[in-house]
Amino acid sequence: MQDPSTLTLRAARTSDCTRLLEWVNSPDSLAAKLKTHAPIASVEHVRWFERAMADNDIVIYIVESDGSACGQIRFTRQFDNEPSTAPHWLVDIFVCNSFRGAGVARSAMEKAMHRLLLEKRHTFAAFVAEVIHENPASLSLFRRLGFTSVANTKTHVCLMKNVRRATDE
Ligand SMILES: CC(C)(COP(=O)(O)OP(=O)(O)OC[C@H]1O[C@@H](n2cnc3c(N)ncnc32)[C@H](O)[C@@H]1OP(=O)(O)O)[C@@H](O)C(=O)NCCC(=O)NCCS
Q1: Which of 4, 64, 98, 142 could be cross-linked to 147 through a Cys-Cys bond (beta carbons 3.0 to 4.6 Å apart)?
Q2: How many CA atoms lie within 13 A of 95 on its CB side?
Q3: Is the CB of 29 under 6 A from ligand 1?
Q4: Which atom of ligand 1 lies closest to the CA of 132?
Q5: CATH number of 80's domain
Q6: pTM above 0.85?
Q7: Which residues contact 39 (CB under 8 A, 6 or more apart)?
Q8: In this model, does residue 36 exceed pLDDT 60?
Protein backbone atom coordinates (compact mmCIF):
# COMPACT_ATOMS: atom_id res chain seq x y z
CA MET A 1 0.00 0.00 0.00
CA GLN A 2 1.32 3.41 -0.92
CA ASP A 3 1.27 6.36 1.49
CA PRO A 4 -2.45 7.31 1.77
CA SER A 5 -1.62 10.98 1.18
CA THR A 6 -0.63 10.06 -2.40
CA LEU A 7 -3.94 8.38 -3.22
CA THR A 8 -5.77 9.87 -6.17
CA LEU A 9 -9.43 10.35 -7.00
CA ARG A 10 -11.12 10.29 -10.36
CA ALA A 11 -14.71 10.69 -11.42
CA ALA A 12 -16.49 7.36 -11.95
CA ARG A 13 -16.97 6.41 -15.60
CA THR A 14 -19.21 3.97 -17.47
CA SER A 15 -16.62 1.20 -17.24
CA ASP A 16 -16.84 1.30 -13.41
CA CYS A 17 -20.40 -0.06 -13.44
CA THR A 18 -19.46 -3.72 -12.77
CA ARG A 19 -16.83 -2.84 -10.18
CA LEU A 20 -19.34 -0.73 -8.23
CA LEU A 21 -21.91 -3.55 -8.32
CA GLU A 22 -19.35 -5.99 -6.89
CA TRP A 23 -18.48 -3.55 -4.13
CA VAL A 24 -22.04 -2.68 -3.17
CA ASN A 25 -22.94 -6.37 -3.06
CA SER A 26 -20.00 -7.38 -0.88
CA PRO A 27 -21.32 -8.72 2.45
CA ASP A 28 -19.72 -6.02 4.62
CA SER A 29 -21.02 -3.27 2.37
CA LEU A 30 -24.57 -4.69 2.52
CA ALA A 31 -24.25 -5.16 6.29
CA ALA A 32 -23.44 -1.44 6.64
CA LYS A 33 -26.48 -0.26 4.63
CA LEU A 34 -29.50 1.24 6.32
CA LYS A 35 -32.12 0.22 3.77
CA THR A 36 -30.62 -2.26 1.28
CA HIS A 37 -29.75 -5.66 2.77
CA ALA A 38 -30.23 -8.12 -0.08
CA PRO A 39 -27.79 -8.14 -3.02
CA ILE A 40 -28.74 -5.76 -5.82
CA ALA A 41 -29.57 -7.37 -9.17
CA SER A 42 -27.32 -6.43 -12.09
CA VAL A 43 -30.18 -5.05 -14.20
CA GLU A 44 -31.34 -2.83 -11.35
CA HIS A 45 -27.79 -1.60 -10.71
CA VAL A 46 -27.19 -0.75 -14.37
CA ARG A 47 -30.42 1.27 -14.44
CA TRP A 48 -29.45 3.09 -11.22
CA PHE A 49 -25.87 3.70 -12.40
CA GLU A 50 -26.97 5.22 -15.72
CA ARG A 51 -29.30 7.59 -13.88
CA ALA A 52 -26.61 8.41 -11.30
CA MET A 53 -24.04 9.26 -13.97
CA ALA A 54 -26.47 11.73 -15.55
CA ASP A 55 -27.49 13.30 -12.24
CA ASN A 56 -25.68 16.48 -11.12
CA ASP A 57 -26.74 15.80 -7.55
CA ILE A 58 -24.84 12.50 -7.39
CA VAL A 59 -21.05 12.52 -7.52
CA ILE A 60 -19.06 9.27 -7.50
CA TYR A 61 -15.29 9.26 -7.11
CA ILE A 62 -13.12 6.19 -7.57
CA VAL A 63 -10.16 6.06 -5.17
CA GLU A 64 -6.94 4.83 -6.77
CA SER A 65 -3.74 3.59 -5.18
CA ASP A 66 -0.83 3.38 -7.62
CA GLY A 67 -3.35 3.50 -10.46
CA SER A 68 -5.52 0.64 -9.12
CA ALA A 69 -9.08 1.24 -8.00
CA CYS A 70 -9.32 0.51 -4.27
CA GLY A 71 -12.57 2.16 -3.22
CA GLN A 72 -15.33 4.60 -3.93
CA ILE A 73 -16.93 7.67 -2.39
CA ARG A 74 -20.41 8.74 -3.39
CA PHE A 75 -22.01 12.06 -2.49
CA THR A 76 -25.75 12.54 -2.92
CA ARG A 77 -27.17 16.01 -2.50
CA GLN A 78 -30.04 16.33 -0.04
CA PHE A 79 -32.51 19.13 -0.36
CA ASP A 80 -34.53 18.78 2.88
CA ASN A 81 -32.55 21.54 4.63
CA GLU A 82 -32.15 23.91 1.70
CA PRO A 83 -32.20 26.62 0.41
CA SER A 84 -31.90 28.44 3.73
CA THR A 85 -28.81 26.50 4.85
CA ALA A 86 -25.59 25.23 3.30
CA PRO A 87 -25.83 22.50 0.64
CA HIS A 88 -26.03 19.08 2.30
CA TRP A 89 -24.32 16.04 0.80
CA LEU A 90 -24.91 12.50 2.08
CA VAL A 91 -21.76 10.36 2.04
CA ASP A 92 -21.32 6.71 1.12
CA ILE A 93 -17.86 5.16 1.24
CA PHE A 94 -16.34 1.77 0.50
CA VAL A 95 -12.70 0.67 0.67
CA CYS A 96 -11.60 -2.76 -0.60
CA ASN A 97 -10.69 -5.20 2.15
CA SER A 98 -6.99 -5.47 1.38
CA PHE A 99 -6.60 -1.66 1.62
CA ARG A 100 -8.34 -1.22 4.98
CA GLY A 101 -6.87 -0.06 8.25
CA ALA A 102 -4.16 2.01 6.55
CA GLY A 103 -5.83 5.42 6.47
CA VAL A 104 -7.19 5.10 2.91
CA ALA A 105 -10.76 6.10 3.81
CA ARG A 106 -9.63 9.04 5.92
CA SER A 107 -7.30 10.47 3.33
CA ALA A 108 -9.68 9.85 0.43
CA MET A 109 -12.59 11.48 2.27
CA GLU A 110 -10.55 14.63 2.99
CA LYS A 111 -9.60 14.89 -0.67
CA ALA A 112 -13.11 14.08 -1.91
CA MET A 113 -14.88 16.68 0.25
CA HIS A 114 -12.54 19.44 -0.95
CA ARG A 115 -12.80 18.32 -4.55
CA LEU A 116 -16.60 18.38 -4.38
CA LEU A 117 -16.55 21.92 -2.97
CA LEU A 118 -14.34 23.03 -5.85
CA GLU A 119 -16.28 21.22 -8.57
CA LYS A 120 -19.67 22.40 -7.30
CA ARG A 121 -18.34 25.90 -6.56
CA HIS A 122 -19.65 25.75 -3.00
CA THR A 123 -18.01 28.15 -0.54
CA PHE A 124 -19.00 25.70 2.13
CA ALA A 125 -21.15 22.60 2.49
CA ALA A 126 -22.38 20.20 5.12
CA PHE A 127 -21.44 16.54 4.76
CA VAL A 128 -23.69 13.97 6.40
CA ALA A 129 -23.03 10.32 7.21
CA GLU A 130 -25.63 7.87 8.48
CA VAL A 131 -23.81 5.03 10.23
CA ILE A 132 -25.42 1.97 11.82
CA HIS A 133 -24.42 1.35 15.43
CA GLU A 134 -22.78 -1.97 14.47
CA ASN A 135 -20.18 -0.30 12.24
CA PRO A 136 -17.29 0.76 14.53
CA ALA A 137 -14.85 1.29 11.64
CA SER A 138 -17.15 3.78 9.97
CA LEU A 139 -18.01 5.52 13.26
CA SER A 140 -14.28 5.98 14.05
CA LEU A 141 -13.63 7.12 10.51
CA PHE A 142 -16.18 9.94 10.58
CA ARG A 143 -15.36 11.00 14.16
CA ARG A 144 -11.66 11.12 13.27
CA LEU A 145 -12.55 13.31 10.28
CA GLY A 146 -14.23 15.77 12.66
CA PHE A 147 -17.85 14.79 12.03
CA THR A 148 -20.07 15.20 15.09
CA SER A 149 -23.21 13.34 16.01
CA VAL A 150 -26.38 15.32 15.27
CA ALA A 151 -28.96 12.55 15.74
CA ASN A 152 -29.05 9.13 17.27
CA THR A 153 -31.82 6.70 16.35
CA LYS A 154 -32.45 3.06 17.26
CA THR A 155 -30.66 1.96 14.11
CA HIS A 156 -28.01 4.55 13.32
CA VAL A 157 -26.08 7.69 14.18
CA CYS A 158 -26.26 10.70 11.93
CA LEU A 159 -22.96 12.59 11.84
CA MET A 160 -22.25 15.90 10.18
CA LYS A 161 -19.35 18.16 9.31
CA ASN A 162 -19.36 21.64 7.83
CA VAL A 163 -16.49 22.17 5.43
CA ARG A 164 -15.36 25.47 3.95
CA ARG A 165 -13.47 25.70 0.67
CA ALA A 166 -9.81 26.62 1.13
CA THR A 167 -9.38 30.33 0.30
CA ASP A 168 -6.39 29.87 -2.01
CA GLU A 169 -8.28 27.54 -4.39
C1 LIG B 1 -15.50 2.07 6.89
C2 LIG B 1 -14.35 1.90 5.90
C3 LIG B 1 -14.61 2.79 4.69
C4 LIG B 1 -13.05 2.34 6.60
O5 LIG B 1 -11.99 2.27 5.65
P6 LIG B 1 -10.45 2.23 6.08
O7 LIG B 1 -9.64 2.66 4.91
O8 LIG B 1 -10.13 0.94 6.71
O9 LIG B 1 -10.41 3.38 7.21
P10 LIG B 1 -9.13 4.12 7.74
O11 LIG B 1 -7.96 3.18 7.69
O12 LIG B 1 -8.99 5.45 7.08
O13 LIG B 1 -9.50 4.31 9.27
C14 LIG B 1 -10.30 5.37 9.72
C15 LIG B 1 -10.49 5.20 11.23
O16 LIG B 1 -11.31 4.07 11.49
C17 LIG B 1 -10.63 3.17 12.38
N18 LIG B 1 -10.94 1.81 11.99
C19 LIG B 1 -10.67 1.22 10.82
N20 LIG B 1 -11.12 -0.06 10.83
C21 LIG B 1 -11.67 -0.24 12.06
C22 LIG B 1 -12.31 -1.33 12.69
N23 LIG B 1 -12.50 -2.49 12.05
N24 LIG B 1 -12.79 -1.16 13.94
C25 LIG B 1 -12.64 0.03 14.59
N26 LIG B 1 -12.04 1.10 14.04
C27 LIG B 1 -11.56 0.96 12.80
C28 LIG B 1 -9.18 3.45 12.18
O29 LIG B 1 -8.45 3.06 13.33
C30 LIG B 1 -9.17 4.94 11.94
O31 LIG B 1 -9.23 5.65 13.17
P32 LIG B 1 -7.89 6.29 13.76
O33 LIG B 1 -7.41 7.24 12.68
O34 LIG B 1 -8.40 6.96 14.96
O35 LIG B 1 -6.95 5.18 13.98
C36 LIG B 1 -14.16 0.40 5.45
O37 LIG B 1 -14.07 -0.40 6.61
C38 LIG B 1 -15.29 -0.11 4.58
O39 LIG B 1 -15.28 0.10 3.37
N40 LIG B 1 -16.29 -0.81 5.17
C41 LIG B 1 -17.41 -1.38 4.43
C42 LIG B 1 -18.36 -0.32 3.92
C43 LIG B 1 -18.80 0.63 5.01
O44 LIG B 1 -19.02 0.26 6.17
N45 LIG B 1 -18.95 1.91 4.63
C46 LIG B 1 -19.40 2.97 5.51
C47 LIG B 1 -20.88 3.12 5.40
S48 LIG B 1 -21.44 4.49 6.41
Answers
A1: 142
A2: 20
A3: yes
A4: 48
A5: 3.40.630.30
A6: yes
A7: 25, 30
A8: yes
